[in-house]
Write a structure and sequence with these properties.
With about 450 residues, the protein is an alpha/beta fold. It contains 16 helices and 25 strands.
Length: about 450
């Protein structure tokens, strides 16, 4: 078939392509590096022609022109499944709404429930077989494409080409319009400088990681620090099975620690659903046969996760109450990030032989008023609960790691108070006593 002629027939300018969007439509921007910069700017230029156009995105770096250009949200309403730092700031300004979800179900939400009038996303240039590689957005993009009435591809030469088992590409026959244009360098996600507490938490966790373990690392400083500590350790033959591939895996690879040799599933390949990090990371995954990208519905499936032995998940959280409920995405009603893959891997590691799930946080923090506050609290009162107490496994602070599985309410209180900041332990004991979850025989 002559894919080149079909390509030319579907080629449009950004301004021409966005003419398909109508008032009241649902438009999807997929995720991270799949964000269509040129099409977003063209849609923003149509602001005064449109009303009530709704958008969905996930972990998008921005700037998102349709959100920025309409502070009253009369024309464009932007929504996110999981906040990036930029989307969190948009939310603080009232320009981004949050959509709760369980990550592994996201593609199925689109296939079975959600309406998508138009999906527009960045992809690699078409190959000789007529396929566009969906690159770093492959984890969620294919499910959205299959649900959309109209598909617009914005070609971005800067994107890395990622090999996948399935769901990593779309054929030109399934594309309605194609847009070309100049793109800036890829957005990167630099982490903030790790603190001494971050390194202390990592040092508490490292002894639990055996050689041959497979790792899932979430977003934030902790993955970076864990990667650095493993690179410096005697641990060998680490495997990768994660919804997000970050620079932590590159650090372990460079140190010869990430080999994927001991995995029970997809041996010799690191598996991911997204790639977000530095340009060095994008260069590493580009055309790398040792990296496999797949839909998040597969990567985050607990049954798949559980097939790996010694599957270890390490994620950040914000607060834990004395019952073992975990808040990992918001504080005081303010949405900070999202559930992401944390609950998926918390479930999957429980099935894994030798599996462990760590939820990490500093024991306390200093707020904007300069007041130190405990992250371990008596009980949540209106805070968003990400992980139910029935599934919480290992909690880590700079004061240690405690296991909550199989523990009664009073045992949980004792364990959690033991890793709280010392300044708050007596206060927490009094609260536990008032809540009838403290025994006189408990250790102080």
């Amino acid at each position: 078939m002559d894919f080149y002629n079909e390509y030319q027939q579907k080629l449009r300018t950004p301004d021409e392509a966005v003419q398909v969007v109508k008032s009241g439509d649902w438009v999807d921007y997929t995720s991270n590096l799949g964000f269509p910069i040129l099409l977003d700017a063209a849609l923003a230029r149509r602001k005064n022609e449109l009303t009530d156009v709704k958008f969905r995105g996930t972990l998008i770096f921005g700037p998102i022109q349709v959100a920025e250009c309409d502070p009253e949200r009369e024309h464009f309403i932007y929504n996110s499944w999981h906040f990036s730092a930029y989307e969190r700031k948009l939310s603080d300004r009232g320009l981004c709404s949050f959509m709760p979800m369980i990550f592994r179900f996201m593609p199925e939400y689109y296939r079975a429930i959600l309406k998508v009038n138009v999906v527009m996303l960045c992809a690699r240039p078409m190959d000789k077989h007529g396929y566009f590689n969906l690159s770093c957005a492959s984890g969620v993009a294919k499910g959205i494409i299959e649900a959309a009435d109209i598909v617009i591809i914005e070609v971005n030469d800067n994107l890395p080409h990622l090999f996948g088992g399935f769901g990593e590409s779309v054929h030109i026959s399934d594309v309605d319009y194609i847009v070309e244009g100049e793109h800036p360098p890829l957005n990167q996600m630099p982490g903030s400088a790790p603190t001494k507490e971050d390194f202390a938490i990592a040092d508490e966790i490292i002894p639990y990681i055996p050689s041959g373990a497979t790792l899932q690392l979430g977003i934030g400083n902790m993955p970076t620090v864990i990667g650095k500590r493993i690179a410096e350790s005697d641990i060998t033959d680490i495997g990768m099975h994660t919804e997000l591939c970050s620079d932590a895996y590159l650090a372990m690879y460079r140190a010869g620690k990430l080999t994927n040799r001991k995995k029970q599933l997809h041996k010799d390949k690191g598996v991911t659903a997204m790639v977000v990090g530095s340009q060095e990371l994008y260069d590493w995954v580009d055309h790398n046969p040792g990296i496999m990208i797949a839909p998040v519905s597969y990567v985050n499936d607990p049954a798949i996760i559980g097939r790996m032995e010694n599957m270890i998940a390490i994620n950040n959280c914000i607060a834990v109450d004395l019952y073992g409920q975990v808040s990992a995405e918001g504080a005081g009603g303010r949405q900070i990030s999202g559930t992401g893959g944390q609950l998926d891997f918390l479930t999957g590691t429980t099935i894994s032989r030798g599996g462990k799930s760590f939820l990490c946080m500093t024991s306390s923090f200093v707020n904007k008023q300069g007041v130190r506050t405990s992250r371990i609290v008596p009980r949540f009162t209106g805070d968003i609960v990400t992980d139910p107490r029935s599934q919480t496994h290992l909690i880590a602070t700079e004061y240690g790691v405690v296991n909550l599985i199989g523990k009664s309410t009073w045992e949980r209180a004792e364990e959690l108070i033991s890793i709280a900041h010392p300044d708050f332990r007596e206060e927490l004991i009094r609260a536990a006593d008032e809540q009838n979850i403290w025994r006189k025989s408990n250790k102080r």
